[in-house]
Amino acid sequence: MNTDLLNFLLYFSFSKKDRKKAKEYFNQKSINDLKLIMTLLVKDEEDIIETNIRFHKAMGVDGFIVTSHNSTDKTNEILEKLKQEGIVLDIIYETNPAYDQENFVDRMIKLAKRKYKADWIINADADEFYYSKDLNLKKSILKYKKTNVNVLWVDSNFLFTDNREDFLNCPYFIKKPFLEYEAEMLGIKDKDEYKNYIGSQGCTKVIHKTKGYKKICIGNHYVRMWHNINIETPYITLYHYTIKNYNEQVKKLKRYIESINGIKKGCGVHMIKMIEKYENGTLREDFDNTYSETMRNFLIEQGVISIDKSVSNFLKFMRKK
């Protein structure tokens, strides 16, 4: 029904209480009518995959399509359990040794569109948590219903780990990296240990419609659409747990090494540098310097790091329900 006509009828035909109930009904109907699917490409993510999926389910995602790329830990077992519950729709067990991310994700998007009639897609990794300020991702997406927008940009807020084992309870995130002139004023522009905190975080991700979809790009940083109309959304925040703690970082590097020959030239440069440090024995020292308490306190003081408990608080809320 036309929204203006609906509002007219609501205003003149019902009491204030009934109008409120009617609006709630039609708002909920809009949410129910929108089909939101998340794709996940994972490898050996037993420490986080179930929490990630249940978090996004509680945030309004209707279903999940997962590609497990040669996982050898309990990831596949966890995914099968979630499939039995009806939360995971499809699991693709990929045995190709090469990490062909673009094609793996593209395959899941097409499956979501053709088999499950998805309207919107979120393509994620296991360490990425999309948080809606409306506490429902579909509500946030529906704010663009009356526009032609078909791609939402979401910038990453990276975890600044304090090396705890329960990393999802770590509240420190890089929210506002130094601008170039701010770094210069502090005399830290050329100091290598601050390289992660100067300039844009440079890790925008996309949420996109299935209608008009052409091809996802490496890392889910961009999507090619017919008539791409995009906007940076203020309603959704991406919390990115890239560096969880030192032990998990070593595990991640080992997984990456297995797939490195299949990664396109020019991609994963930061990971390649960390692998070099791991292999020459300097990774631990670099990690301790980068994520020291002194560094954290300085960056908090400068406003680069903020304390944000959005994800951890929502997880606690979920567990109490």
Task: Report what the structure shows.
- The protein is of the alpha/beta class and 321 residues long.
- It has a single domain, classed as Spore Coat Polysaccharide Biosynthesis Protein SpsA, Chain A (Alpha-Beta Complex).
- The protein is 40% helix and 21% strand.
- The strands form 2 sheets. Strands 1, 2, 3, 4, 5, 6, 7, 8, 11, 12 and 13 form an 11-stranded mixed beta sheet that branches. Strands 9-10 form a two-stranded antiparallel ribbon.
- α4 (75-84) links the parallel β2 (63-69) and β3 (88-94).
- α8 packs across α9.
- It is globular.
- The model has no long low-confidence stretch (mean pLDDT 88).
Task: Summarize the topology.
Elements: H1 3-13, H2 16-33, E1 36-42, H3 49-58, E2 63-69, H4 75-84, E3 88-94, H5 101-114, E4 120-124, E5 128-132, H6 137-142, E6 151-159, E7 172-174, H7 180-185, E8 204-209, E9 213-216, E10 223-225, E11 230-232, E12 236-240, H8 246-259, H9 269-279, H10 283-290, H11 293-301, E13 305-307, H12 310-320
Observed structural traits:
single chain, 321 residues, alpha/beta, Spore Coat Polysaccharide Biosynthesis Protein SpsA, Chain A, eleven-stranded mixed beta sheet, two-stranded antiparallel ribbon, 40% helix, 21% strand
